[in-house]
Amino acid sequence: MAQNKLDELDRNIIYELDLDSSQSYVELGKKLGEPNETIAFRVKRLVDRGYIKSFINIVNFLELNSHYFKIFYKFQKVDEVIEKRIIDWLSKHPRISYLAEVQGRYDLVCAPFGKDMHDLEAFLNEFKKEFGRYIAEQEILPVIATHRFNTRFCKPDGQLRRQTLSGKGSSYELDPTETKIVKELARNSRVKVSDLAVQLGMSITAINNRISALRRKDILSSAVLDIDFEKFGKGYYQIDVTGASIDVINNIVDFFAAMPEAFFATRTLGKYDLALEMVLSSDDELNVIVKKIKDKFGSNIITLDTFKLKQHSINWFPGYDKKR
User: For residue 298, which phi and psi values (nearest 5 degrees)?
Assistant: First the structure.
């Protein structure tokens, strides 16, 4: 079922749930002027047909004295069997928050997290022990900030909501109860607080207080959707940029954010300063956006590379409670 078979109500539901995927059907029905029974039926249908993969809560690991590392890999002497082994191994690794195949300069990108360089080294050593002979290139980019933009490709006239995830030098450590709460909300933003209370042996008030405190600390961020873009006839693309200065990079982020196709802008250290992620219908649309960026920023862009991605996994709370 392509996007053109979704009606306006379906598209509005997706737009609103990506703003807050934890809201009730009653709240959503009031916003959209529909009975909550209709909303519940439509949401279930969107899930059953695969448009909505899951309801998730973004977790700001940078506020937990932890770090993400984007790693690009170019492989050699790899056939389909080896490629599948690599993807399966990474998909199951408890440290991986993001994994995608890449069309372009590289073959694959993954994003492990860790408390420090020792965690990164441990992951790299594990991966090399299994697949080192197949690695032709490895590019490591520490993530210093991530901007997420709400889903607007299904509603181009929708309002922009921009969320920035960055660390402020916090060294906060989750206690076991907080870890369980965050873990559950990261994989299901619609979980009932009453169910969490039963699961953890606490009162509903105590659970709500814990959740509120985690949101005030910016550890628990927005409740959003995990969407299957291919169901909408869309592809997932990325433009990686090196700029002449940090001011140029910040201006590119602001310029990109205004585009309804924009989804993420991630600032990194290393080969690239910035990764712009977007949802597009074709390579031609990518070329149009590249031209807009080049026309606007011209000689202030040092390098610009483009990629098409096939996403395999997204996990906003991977293995935090796993000991090294």
Answer: 40, -120
